[in-house]
Amino acid sequence: xxxxxxxxxxxxxxxxxxxxxxxxxxxxxxxxxxxxxxxxxxxxxxxxxxxxxxxxxxxxxxxxxxxxxxxxxxxxxxxxxxxxxxxxxxxxxxxxx
Length: 97
Fold this sequence. Notes:
Elements lengths: L1 E9 L6 H11 L8 E7 L9 E7 L2 H9 L1 H14 E9 L4
Antiparallel strand pairs: 1-3, 1-4, 2-3
Helix pairs in contact: 1-3
């Protein structure tokens, strides 16, 4: 199991139409084959400068790599992520056994 987390700050104002469009586009990532337990989050702590998070799981590295190459994911990066995200942190976890 791989947990993929992307924590980020948008260039758009909170509550703006651009923010809403970005988050709606992000929801479409949940429909990519292999994506499990997709969730969107809004930061509530003042301990860092990030505002949002996307978290999803994959059964294995195979599904995770397929997701990274999937046209829907690539399109999201090209059409939304590159122009909208000011800063981000990506963390990919595997459970300790």
